[in-house]
Structure formats: C-alpha cells, structure tokens
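Input (DNA ligase):
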Amino acid sequence: MTLDIQKQIDHLKATIEDYNYQYYVLDNPSVPDAEYDRLMRELKSLENAHPELITADSPTQKVSGKLDNSFQPIEHLTPMLSLDNVFNIEDFAAYQQRLHNRLKDDAVLAFTCEPKLDGLAISIVYRNGLLEFAATRGDGKVGEDVTHNIRTIASIPLKLRGDYPELLDVRGEVFMPKSAFEKINQDAIEQGVKTFANPRNAAAGSLRQLDPSITAKRNLAVYFYSIGTAEGQALADTHYQRLMQLKSWGLPVCPEVKVVEEAQGCLTYYDDILNRRDQLPYEIDGVVYKVNTIATQQVLGFVAKAPRWAIAHKFPAQEELTRLLAVDFQVGRTGAITPVARLEPVFVGGVTVSNATLHNMDEIERLGVKVGDTVIIRRAGDVIPQIISVVLERRPDNAADVNIPEHCPVCASEVEREPDQAIYRCTGGLVCDAQKKQAIKHYASRKAMDIEGLGDKLIELLCDKKLLGNVTDIYALSKTSIINLERMAEKSADNLLSAIEKSKQTTLAKFIYALGIREVGEVTALNLANHFLEIERLVEASQEQLESIKDIGEVVAHHIVAFFANEENRIIIEKLLEAGVHWPTIENPDEDQQPLLGQTWVITGTLAQMKRAEAQQKLQQLGAKVSGSVSSKTFALLAGESAGSKLNKATELGIKIYTEEEFVTMISSIN
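Output:
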C-alpha cells in the first residue's frame, strides 16, 4: 500500500515540477491554474496522510520556481513566501476559525483586502532612496536579477520620495494592463507572429527580456503589496497603514485596497470585486485577505512557505481542462458555416460549459486541435467559451482530424470557400432552411423591423409549421393561423399581429438593414439610405456608384450588387412594399444636418435618460459612426453609469469623454 502511495506522490511531484518549469522558466504554461491547484491539493492531502513520505524536494516544501540561466541569480534579503488558497466560503470560514483558535480569543479581527493580481511577483531593494536592484521570486530564496528591465517600467520610481527608510525591500506584482495586452497581441497579429495567451504570460515574457528596450515598449505596470525589510525608519502598526507609507514614498498601491472586519466583511469584498472583475483594467484571479494588525501577524507566524495571517480566496476558474468530443457545423443567416466544439461538460467561469466556438477552419488549423484532444477552455465574464490551446502530451492515439463538410449539414447544397476568406459557405441560399430561419430572425430583430413578440423560438415554430417561408409571410399571418400554436393565447396573438402591423412604418435605413445583405450593418445601411434616398435607386446601383460612397469598399459593394441581382430578392422587396411596409421621404442630408460626419463614437455603461440604441440612432442621424470598441481613431466616448474598461482605455488614449448630461446638452444644442 505504501509503495502505491509513494508512486502517486512521485508522479505528482514530477508533474508539478514540470508545470513549474513551463510556467516560471518557459513562460508557456500548458495547463490552467485550476488543474495545477488540484494536483497540488492532491499532493498535500497524500503527504498529510503519510508525513513519513515528505521529502525536502517536494513542491509543497518550497515556493515553486527555477532560475533561467539567461539572468544572474540574486539572493533575497528576506525570503519571498507564497500564499495558501481557499476556494469557497466553507474553506474560508474554517481558515478564520483556525486564526481564532491560535489566538485563543474571539476578538474582532480586521483584514486588509486587495485584488489578487495575475502577474509576476517582484522584490525591489531601495538603498538611501535609490533603486539598487530588483529580482523575481525564483525559488523564494534566490531570484533572477531583472533590474534593467524593472527600471523601464514607468510606474516604478528610481528614487523614493518623502521620509523613506535607509534600506527598503518592497514586494509587488508586475502585470500587463488589459489595454496594453490587446495592443501587443494586435501588433503580433499584424506582424504574423505568435500572440500571448493571456496578460499574465505577456507580463512574464516582457519582464524577462534580455533586451530592456523591448520591455520598455510593453507598458507594464506594478502594484506593491508588502514590505520584506526596512531599516532606519519606523513602520506603521497595521498592514493597511504600511501600504499607505509605501504610497507616500512614491510606490503605487492598488486603489481597491480596503480594511474590513471578520468573515462577512471579507466575503462582501470578495463578491464586490468578483462582480466588477471584467470592468477592472487588469486581470485578477481572486482576492487576498491579510490580518491587518502587525502584532497579531507576528503572533500567528508562518508555516513552511506561507504566512498564517494571509490567505488568497480564488475566484472560479476562467480556464479549465476538458475533452473535445466532436465538432458540429452550424449554418448562419448568410450561409457561413461555423464549427462548434462539443465538449465533455466542465464547470468554468461560474457555469457548466459543454459547447465552445471554434470560429472557422483557420482557427482549427492554428490551434492544431483534433477530436479526442484534451483542451484548455476559457470563459471570462459573458464572453462565449472558446478553446485557447491543446494539451499535446495528453493526445490519444485515436485523435481524429477536423474536416469541413463538402455539403451543407442542413440542405446538402455544396459548400464553397471564397478566395482570401477564412469562412466556408453553403451555396443553397434561401433553399437552405437554416438560412431562411436566420433571415427571418434578423428581419424581425430589434435593430431591424423591431417586431415585438416575434422571437427566435416562435419563428422556429412558425417555420416548422410551414407558416413562414420567407420574410414576406410575416405580413400574411392571421389570428386564425396562429391562435392554436403552443403558448399562443388570444391576447398574445392580438399583440403579435399589432406589432407586425406597427412594424410596417419604419425608416429606409432600418429596412435596408433588415434585408440582411452581407456586410451591411446599421451604419452602412444609414449611409446607403442617406445617399440613395429611395430603395429603387439602391436596387439599381452599380458597383462603381456604391464604391464612391464613404466607408463602402469593393467587397461590400459586391455583396450589395449580388443581393439585388438575385431576382428572388427583388420579388421579396416588392411583396414587402405591397404588404404596406413604408417610410418617410428622406430629404438629401447636407453637412449642416450632419455636423458629426467623419467622427467615430463609442457608447459604454448604462444610460438613464435614453436607451443606448436611441443614443446610437441620434449619433448616426448626425453623421457619426458608432463603434463597439475604443481605439486611437475614436473621436469621443459617451460614458453612462458603471462604465468599465472602455472608459479606462479612452482615458489612457486622451479621448474626449461625455457624460450623459453633457451628451444630451450637446444634442439639444445641435437640434
């Protein structure tokens, strides 16, 4: 029995050390943190049950990490310890009870809480106020000298300010802000080189560059969280006050740091940070609680590699391991065939995930993924789950290649790939039931004809019952034909028919958008409406005429011409007009009526006085283009309540920011 346990322990130790090497030395972890944490907990559990099998080289007996021979070793003035973790409320309650038991009293405990930054731990030594050297954590006792690179980080002072200690060894976390991460990966894509998997890897890779000029371009940042050694200056009696001392000496401290009392205060802080996680300008993977009073910290002391007075409360993992069971292919409104991964269900990002997007065949080729592979799945916030990498060492012998089908999985029409395009398409057009349904859903959607009550499920049902074959059939629906449908009572039938009748009064821009022409979004539809003024003129427009319009290039013009060249599409438009769809006559807009022409705006946060769609429509009517992301080309940002990363990025880029009140005032002055 002991021999079997020894084999398990040896296997776990070897696996964990291999993952440590990939994480700390190669900066290329092959498994998510959650898998690493599981293996470490399993090893701890076995060693606790069999203490005679614990050896000095076990990962549980040291802070993980090895030196890279590219950097000079440097010994820490005091060891850089790591933190133990809890993963749920029960674990944290047990931890707090252990604190009270060790202190032998029930006095109220205050904790300093802070986000657990997802970056690279660093120790920086200042002597007489001047930055002397900086080192990575390494093995906790000896790290790597990265002084030259640390000096390139703008937020790290080369000289302290105020009444600082003669000798200060300060610990912090180097990280890459989300905005910098997006830029570095965008640059990598444009240059055709490998992108970083996440900001943590990007920060580690940037800090450990042999050429400091490369590090200087990466826009790294740092927050300091503790003091290792201080001589020649009295330190405050609480952890929070010591952080404020660091701040007074010119060292950045996370603005989210807060002092709370007991378990309830900690858990309230945890929930707050978790809810705002996606809006923070940096990646975090949990929060850290530290007993605030230094005297109490000293009483509690340390275990082998971690302080008893501090604990990390990890968030639900955003990355997890699972197995790719199959790849299905879905057909969209424009015939685009999208591969969808069917996964062994796994809990990640707070939900159970069994499907993930694979985007297109180019993405499958880039990942090198095969059916049967063990993959890393990522789900952050409301982002659609996606496969980010393959764990090649776990690939089974029977792993199967993923191939695009030669025929549409819905209508069996041929599948083709356009030149220079990553997307394959079904050639069936409106013969394909999948495209018919999607076209009707798009036509009825809020941004198109806005037919309230005609949702996706009802459209599916109406199509299956042969009551809808294309969008013109919407206006042929009668109370008699729909009253007996599932969940369709008399009142809901009346409401639906009323909404259908109401939709007949629209705008030319909305009508063009509702037709579902490839590459024609709301902004392009508005441009077309303002240019041609009448649907008949647009239908007859040539490729050259279309390309002369601002923001319409060769590809979009081709799709528009092809759409109207299709006789069936022309017939559908005629039938819609005969059914009573109409719009007000458009006067030819001039520059005085479109004072925002050429400007790109972004809307973020919650608006109180109007819906975001209404604000977008007002901007577009005045000639502005409304984008979903902030860039250097953005003219202005409209920021409502709870604005997040877009507001942070706009601030960094120096872009004009309007509050809702300022926006309403501006619109009123124009009108």
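Residues 73-314 form a domain with the D-amino Acid Aminotransferase; Chain A, domain 1 fold (CATH 3.30.470.30).
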